[in-house]
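Weekly modeling sync, notes
Attendees: AB, CL, MP (scribe)

Item 1: holo prediction request
CL wants a bound-state model with magnesium ion before deciding which constructs to order. AB pointed out that an apo prediction alone won't tell us much about the pocket. Agreed to run with the ligand included and paste results into these notes for async review.

Input as submitted:
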Amino acid sequence: MRSLPYLARQGQVVWGFGRGSKQLGIPTANFPEQVVDNLPADVSTGIYYGWASVVSGDVHKIVSIVWNPYYKNMKKSMETHIIHTFEENSYGEILSVAIVGWLRPEKNFDSLELLISAIQGDIEEAKKQLDVPEYLKLKDNFFQVPKSKIMNNH
Ligand SMILES: Cc1cc2nc3c(=O)[nH]c(=O)nc-3n(C[C@H](O)[C@H](O)[C@H](O)COP(=O)(O)O)c2cc1C
Ligand SMILES: Nc1ncnc2c1ncn2[C@@H]1O[C@H](COP(=O)(O)OP(=O)(O)O)[C@@H](O)[C@H]1O
Ligand SMILES: [Mg+2]
């Protein structure tokens, strides 16, 4: 995917079906339609990993799913699980997500247990992939180092 890494900025966290935390024990911050509509065309459905920051808070590793949640619905949606434990919900807050790499296509699972273990596998894989120097540098480029400093380093 030529457009990766892609930084999806200014996504205000919206309410989804409320299943992420209740049924799976894995909450996902759901993005509003405008953010999903602005995704580059070559970001197809599937599971991705990357970095995210809520407002100007700390930067965390993430796994994201881009998918078509309804049968025959061509519209994409995007949800992000932040690999961090938060004290409070972030509904209404601005979440910036840098999508860095692709993990797998989305699949149908025969049970909730199989889905949960697949997502846990995604989380472990994302943690590992993001530890390479190239991706650690992206984290700084997107979220932490002032633009002027990045320019001076080049
Ligand atoms: C990293 C990740 C991968 C996922 N992969 C799949 C998948 O392959 N198939 C699937 O049916 N659901 C998958 N899910 C679960 C759902 O897309 C979604 O998170 C869940 O239904 C919660 O939705 P909600 O935010 O509307 O409550 C995945 C979720 C995450 C966080
Ligand atoms: N680690 C986390 N990653 C993503 N969202 C989190 C996390 N911890 C708490 N949350 C909160 O949980 C909400 C999502 O929970 P979820 O059960 O998926 O509900 P919904 O279906 O409304 O998206 C997010 O909007 C956010 O406010
Ligand atoms: Mg959610």
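Recorded for review: The radius of gyration is 15 Å.
Action items: CL to compare against the apo run; MP to circulate these notes.
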